Hints:
The chain has about 300 residues and is α/β, with parallel strands linked by helices. Helix content is about 45%, strand content about 10%.
Amino acid sequence: MAPDFYREAFRQAGMATTSGAAVEWTPQLALETMDAHGIAMSILSISFPGVHFGDDRAARALARRCNELAAELGQRWPGRFGAFAVLPLPEMEGALAELEFALDKLKLDGVILLASHAGRFLGDPALEPLLAELDRRSAVVLVHPGMHPSSRTLGLPWPGFMLEFVIDTSRAAINLLFSGALERFGNIKFILAHGGGVIPYISWRLSVAPIISPLVPQWPQERIFAGLRRFWYDTALCATGHALPALMQTAAPERILFGSDWPYAPAKVTGLSIEGIKEAPGVTDRLRAGIERDNALQLFPRLHG
């Protein structure tokens, strides 16, 4: 979701969408878009650039306002909206406090985390207090990319969503896996946005990394493939015959979820994604039903009601 007050906050902070496009969002427009594409329910989230623009107190206030709105939308339109809580990272005390409020008081469905915060990727020791609490709660965590500081220094003219986003998610996934955080915090259900970035395409490369280099944990290939199957993956901007076959080789089939990236990606892309899933080679009716609905019902049991 991208309510007016949130868009104004990141504009005032000098931020912009990585596509350069203007974004429109209201609950009514969301419902119209969902109805037009046969979408029964959306799990809303605040994605990049998050809510922390340099001031801890302001970030706490903005996170609270976003999360309370998300809860309000779920109450106003029951069965149509759920939500992932946004946290005021990298400020850890505020993030832990908001996590408790959002999950215990507001009853949100999980948490969205950027792949990196203040230059530190998920799996970094500095973020372990948060992962420990998420693990204790067996939380669902959507991992969404951002623009790592290093991406801004590359000198490439292309919008960040085209390449830097998928690399950012991939870096976080690799760090979670090879740092051991994915195993240490095994109760967390991590969803990787955008089909896991480039992870499906380089999964075999990752599996032979221990054979090539002493700098990575000396694990057998199957342990690495099993780690990659522990992630959940959404299909935002990768629901085509180009990408889905690779994703289906890497992910457990019951851990692939439909994602749209709307409103940052236009509604036309949502329609193309739905058609792409139908037409992708190897996607059976059963697998398509899982991606479009059944897998989400397993991840969010409350939706059964």
